[in-house]
Amino acid sequence: MSSLGPAWPERAAWGTAPSLRAWQTAAMEDYLSRNPRDYLAVATPGAGKTTFALTVAAELLGRRIVDRLIIVAPTEHLKMQWAEAAARAGLPIDPTYSAGKGKIASDYVGVAVTYAGVGVNPLAMRIRTERFKTLVILDEMHHAGDSLSWGEGVREAFEPAARRLALTGTPFRSDVNPIPFVTYQPGEDGVPTSVADYTYGYAQALADHVVRPVLFLAYSGEMQWRTRAGDEITASLGEPLTKDMTAHALRTALDPSGSWMPSVLAAADKRLSEVRRHVPDAGGLVIASDQDSARAYAKLLRTITGEAATVVLSDEKAASKKISEFTDNDKRWMVAVRMVSEGVDVPRLAVGVWATTTSTPLFFAQAVGRFVRARSRGEIASVFLPSVPNLLTYASELEVERDHVLGRKVNDDGDIFAAENDLLAQAEAGDAASDDLISTPFEALGSEARFDHALYDGAQFGHEGEVLSGSDEEMDFLGIPGLLEPGQMRELLQQRQADRRRPKKVEDERPADTLADVTTHEHLAVLRRELNGLVASWNHRTGQAHGITHAALRKECGGPAAAVANADQLQKRIDRVREWAMRKSS
């Protein structure tokens, strides 16, 4: 470390981190030994890219290699977040600066702007860059390839910069827009592929205990909807379906008026309660497709928890303030439309619910990145997913590192790297573009949730047969302790699956409990099992899907989904199914 200047590492300790992590130290040594004009650091979300970048900035400013700093971020909120982190590191940054504003107060050593702002007036940013020896930090650099105008604007504005430090924490896409200041080399197939100067992937970060392991909990279930032609379709989420049917089944599941979302939100809240036994301030985040759905999910959460959820909408002026307040308090749930998907730092988020139809690998990595930031050893992140093939694929490939590929044909049918259809800039302006299926006419009629399986470290764990929401089998996974080492989590999942598969010994069998012998929880479980058994029998007898039968029972007898219904409501449904059977027999 003798090659490092006197400004390092003390400056990094001024609020960004008590000390640098091993990967940050290694990346810092690599950067200072090479002194490159352009440097691309790829590090998994939650690893500490901000700390690394600000440490580089402090060192270069301390050595007088640069005089000014420009930080380019994807969103307005992230500008503020960068400015706050820089202030803690002793680097005052003006986050209110806009291109063409001219001079800034002498108190500042730099400014923070957005990619969209650079694209609007790149010439003004170029003039500022030329006036000083400038270090440009390009946060989430892949956004410079979101549109041709953004990429050209970044290139024009920052071509004169003395140093450029590019950062990203998410997989690059395949498209034809080269990202400025990124080096490309031919891959094995001859296609130009981006080359990072330093890479720190999720697998490495997990081994170093820098990020949390993620337990994915996948939910399927019966869905019913009506097409534009008036046809009523019934299908099971998670089964092999056409692309259109999968899209409609997913939208039906996410419909707030159905039974799937209330059941999954109730399960997620149970999981959050278990995590909060060990991590008292742990919070949950629901990622919604649009504002109406976000508000509806918040109402469902209030019914489930008795506590109001924080709702963050991208066009609200108070959005950043709400996120900051949620970061510092101990409220249970936040519901957001996209804008919390990337870069936003809420370390206490531990449980997530995927409730959006947006399903690209880039967005998935951004969203899951909100839950992996580790604060202490043993913390587990839990993310609830619909059983949709592409989402499950992304979850199983969480540790795969991807580079930016140029010139490959992009289409939505066969390429999981299909380009984003809705740019983050559109999401910031409003949420009309957040649902890529909104133009397809259809009407959701009913839904039912079933626990499908858990996915951890690329392996699936679950039970044989159907596992309905609210069942004891589901609780085997929802009740997993909130503090476990990665190896302990794997062993526990394997043990629970093995226990369920092991034949029951004769000596373990005993007469069934009477109602007088069981608790309320056990009584409800008995009634749910009886109801589910009768519904299954009705299915064999009539061919009517389980979800349709449950929806019909709710319509006739009233009450919420079976997972949250009380004993009287469950008993009424049991009696009604028996009445149906008697009438059909007679």
Describe the structure in your own words.
It is a single chain. The protein is α/β, with parallel strands linked by helices and 586 residues long. Strands 11, 12, 13, 14, 15, 16, 17, 19, 20, 21 and 22 form an eleven-stranded mixed beta sheet that branches. Helix 11 links the parallel strand 14 and strand 15 (333-337). Helix 1 (22-34) packs parallel to helix 2, helix 9 (260-278) crosses helix 10 (291-305) and helix 18 (546-557) crosses helix 19. The chain is elongated, with a radius of gyration of 26 Å.
Alpha-carbon Rg, integer: 26 Å
Could you estimate the helical fraction of the residues in percent?
25-40%
- For the report, how would you describe the main beta sheet? 11 strands, mixed
Apparent shape: elongated
In a nutshell, what does this entry contain?
With 586 residues, this protein is an alpha/beta fold. Helix content is 39%, strand content 19%.
Jot down its keywords.
seven-stranded parallel β-sheet, 19% strand, eleven-stranded mixed β-sheet, single chain, 586 residues, 19 helices, elongated, alpha/beta
